[in-house]
Amino acid sequence: MKGADERFQSEANSANIMSMPAAATDALTIGNALRALPKAELHLHLEGSVNATTFAEMARHHDVELPPHSHPAELFDYSDLAGFLDVYALVAASMIDRRDFERVTYECLERCAANGARHVEMFFSPEAHIEHGVPYDTVLAGITAGVRHAEVDFGLSCLLIPAINRELGGLRAVEFVEMVLAHRTDDIVGVGLDFNEIGYPPELFVDAFRLAEQAGLRRTSHAGEVGPAQNVRDGIELLHCERVDHGYNIVQDPELLAECVASQVPFTVCPTTTTFTTDHRDLSAADHPIRVMYDAGLNMTVNSDDPTMFGAELTDEYSKLNRLMGFSFDELAQLALASLDAAWIDEPTKSSWRAEWASDIECISARLDEQ
Ligand SMILES: [Zn+2]
Q1: Tell me, what CATH number does 235's domain have?
Q2: Per the residue annotation, which of 41, 110, 225, 317 is the catalytic one?
Q3: Any catalytic annotation for residue 225?
Q4: Residue 215: helix, strand or coil by DSSP?
Q5: Is residue 349 part of a domain?
Q6: Is residue 10's pLDDT more than 90?
Q7: Distance between CA 86 and CA 29 in Å, rounded?
Q8: Cα of 44 to ligand 1 centre, how many Å?
Q9: Measured in angstroms, how far is the CA atom of residue 90 from the centroid of ligand 1?
Q10: How many angstroms separate the alpha carbon of residue 223 from the centre of ligand 1?
Q11: Structural domain harbouring 64
């Protein structure tokens, strides 16, 4: 009988991504050390995490027409946000059956585990599937099955964050939260807000977020990525967001930056995404917002956002901070611990994991120092 981990042919398996060298005498590179670092992934979109070959197979199965390509990896070859959004829509259109969602979730979490993630809080975009006639309960059932299998096979935990598509407006957002609450499970930890900030400011979503808060859901919002710093402020003050996703344009508002340093509200930053969706395409620039945010003392976590679609896994994001922005291993280890602190899990669990992670980090650090 085949084990659960053999049910899907995954790219992560074939890539043979492993963590630390087994023997203490083997060389430990900074790359391996960063891969082994225990991490929480807090800003990851399921639909932006689909393997190219899985995407091509699902599209073929469901008769979704794809652009000409000689290899599935070419499907993720674009240079701007518009190209990315076109392909994102095709990926969403190719996820139809419960099993599609289960497979994609399982493969996504497999890659997370291979990158050292021990806890994941994953966005998914129900509206992108409802648009194609896939009911929310089908989406949720498939994702939940994928999470259950991955938790057993890879030893990580995963909570889910259905994300409001802001482009559908405030009234639909209220209906969306009502739908989420009607199908609520213990896996659903909160709600997010994403898609284009321009023209869809936070104040449109006050009612939806109030409803979520009253029902005990946690709240986060994409803000200040392409929209103004004011969206960061309004996300926190009007929507009562407990985290900010991206938030780079906060650097244009020193007063708000100082307030967020004081409150230590977590910002989930995604280095590779900034090179696609913002004007800050040089990660080594001294004025890159992530550098400025960190130096100001903001509470920041490192995340991958849309790893297969932007071609950078979670370890790559930590590695880019090391190679291109000069972050030391110790600084990155602190950011990994900050990701645990910013996770939406109960305090006793967090406290026990913190002790475990700190001890593992000490071992990894000692191995690096030996060289
Ligand atoms: Zn995002």
Answers
A1: 3.20.20.140
A2: 225
A3: yes
A4: coil
A5: yes
A6: no
A7: 38
A8: 6
A9: 18
A10: 10
A11: 35-369
